[in-house]
## 1
Amino acid sequence: MKSIDKDIHVLIIDDEQGIREGCARILSRIGCDVSTASRGEEGLEILEKTSDISIVLLDLKMPGIDGMEVLSRIREKYQQIMVIIMTGFATVETAIQAMKQGAYDFIPKPFEPDHVRLVVNRAREKIKLTWQTEKLTLERQRTLLDLGTEKSRLTGIIEALPNGVMVTNTQGQVVLMNPALKRQLALPKDLKSGMPIEALVEDVGFQKFVHKINESSLINPDEIYTYELILPDHKYFLARGRPVLTGDKECMGVVIILINITAMKVLDQLKSEFVAKVSHELRSPLSTIHEQLAVVLNELGQEKSSDKQEHLLSRAKEKTQGLISLIGDLLDLSRIEAGAATQDPRPVQVEDLLASIVDFLGARTKRKKQKLTLEKLSENIPPFIADPLSLESIFGNLITNAINYTPEDGTITVRIQYVNHTICVDVQDTGFGIDPKYHAKIFDRFYRVKDKNTRYVTGTGLGLPIVKGLVDALGGKISLESAFEGGTTFHVVLPMKMDIHSE
Ligand code: ADP
């Protein structure tokens, strides 16, 4: 393809030397490359050898082959060349004839330089426009080709992905599924897209998950949503979804990948069963050792014995107590994982349950010279339907923590009130407090804050994960307000439900 900035090459074929030289001068001045020929044959030879000639200025009356013959040969062989006829007044008729045979324009002789410039410039503009059009067409073809290749490459990649990929539009119709997804969901290989999600996946939770991403795209366009899909044949999939947004952040639909986590789930279940079994097996002998140590220590108190022996036995008793707590926590966690937290629901008067915990832990607070009180801020609090052991575990852990992480002479206040069909319990202490940078982490398993105050408090780092797991299972929320050395308040909000099993 020619560069559109290139000079135009003009060939002048005329037997009059004056005309040839005059035209050559005019055209060179306006930036054209010029070649000349004095006869038709010579002109055709030059055309044969030179590939870039775009315009021919052609005299009609010449010795040898005349201009009309040259014109017809040019038209035959070089269709893109523009021929401008130069002719005397007497042969205007012939000029018209030449135009009919495909000449582009004509210049009557004698002519003014301006006229030659005008006609050649017009032809030149036309040629440059043709070049530009050719260039654009070629570019368009290339872009289309590139797009086509890119599209088939992307399709190939999506088809080859080992994880399932599904794309839905805003109405929840599935517009794309790769083969892996069809295999995962046991859908027919030749299933066409366009069906609503409800027709492909029975799980109502999954259907809601897809619609929820569509709806929430305006609020949280960058969030990744997850859902655990369990198929009837006990296969587990983790669905991770995001809204598909246009450049203007408008939601076009949802893209979801499906990862098979069945093997992980089986392992996790085995691990939980193992932990539950081992913890259970360890608890009885450990409790026996603990009790026996208590008896020995008691007897030693009455007899004369060395301080060293007594010290060692006390340490052993403390350690066994630590192990018993750890095992208790592990068993609690296993119970949550197995869904036991919501398994034995019955009406519980939460303020009574709190009173008995406060009463039970009173001895410990007395030893630390702490003040532990329960405040009831609402009358007629209705009973809460839940497994009482779960509630005991939630508030027992929170109040024990408040005692453990508050120095001597501190105050711990437990408040209960009933607001908007929810039971709200606050456990407030004047203790060491928790730096806000740890607030999210303290709910992770085994996470313990180690600073100058908490270093000497023994614990497992399982209390708060247990509390959070149980609160979540009951459909509630837990939050905290705390600052380093500024005391801590945990808020627990439990919504009343008529039937705990219904969603
Ligand atoms: P544990 O008490 O066995 O270490 P938890 O999961 O109950 O484990 O608590 C995690 C961490 O949170 C604790 O190690 C402690 O640093 C911090 N924490 C919990 N409750 C309080 C509280 N009331 N005051 C200060 N720190 C607390």
## 2
Amino acid sequence: MPEVGIILGSESDLPKVKECFEIFELFNVDFEIIISSAHRSPEATMGWAAAASDRGIKVIIAVAGGAAHLPGVVASRTTLPVIGVPIETKISGGLDSLLSIAQMPSGIPVAAMAVGKAGGANAALFAVSILSLANPAYAEKLVEYRKEMADSIRRTNERLSRAGHKKYIRKLEA
Ligand code: RP5
């Protein structure tokens, strides 16, 4: 049964958050995905959000760009934690989306992730953190994941020190 519900304001958002799906696959977390807009299909959006908890969903990720009110609208229909992912836009690089999500007025909170690739990935990692409160196996996997990141930096430093910075930069630029 899916533990995470992912709602996207548009089909065009789907490829922008592929890192989110990859992290869930890495952590073996079941998720459901729906495309539904706060303004183009408001009834479907609100119905999905209202019934999410009854389907066993524990965390919601809401992805939107521009006037990104989707996470807030979803949060108004559920008490589940809602994580908002702002999508990059042509007009301001996604600052509009970020502020729409981060600047929720007091009463209905939404967690705001970063714009860009990091936003999708961190939304999934944040959801895993929330799920780990009830499932210690996820906490163990998060520790492993972080250890691998630190190991990867250590390996980079070893290569850098072997090659010297000039050669290393030339290789990076090639
Ligand atoms: C928002 O409008 C969506 O989340 C998307 O980021 C943005 C543009 O949607 P499309 O015009 O590409 O469908 O609702």
